[in-house]
Design a protein that fits this description.
The protein is an alpha+beta fold. About 35% of the residues lie in helices and about 25% in strands. A 4-stranded antiparallel β-sheet has the order 2-3-1-4. Strand 2 and strand 3 form a beta hairpin. The C terminus is likely disordered.
């Protein structure tokens, strides 16, 4: 499933951990935004990581699910890439 993950994390240490975790799952398209193509177990791992490593009283993690049709209508203006443009898989 295609998702957009955006975060607003107060502390540098927690922000760094989340950024490092998300780099393994997707493409960092903005400072605190990742575009990911996730399997169900990866989505569950992301939710678990957030529960265990963020302070949910201070931090925010948003996961936006995109259907195939919506993802195909995404636009990028200026510098940037869309996950939909990639034609390879990282193994």
């Amino acid at each position: 499933m295609k998702v957009i993950v955006a975060y607003d994390i107060v502390r540098n240490k927690r922000r760094g951990r989340m950024h490092k975790f998300l780099r393994e799952l997707g493409i960092n398209t903005q400072k605190s935004v990742f575009e990911c193509e996730l399997k169900r177990d990866e989505l569950l791992a992301l939710r678990s990581f957030a529960r265990n490593h963020l302070n949910l009283q201070e931090d925010c993690l948003n996961i936006y699910h995109l259907c195939r049709q919506c993802a195909s209508k995404a636009e990028v203006q200026g510098l940037g890439i869309q996950v939909a443009q990639l034609d390879y898989h990282i193994i």
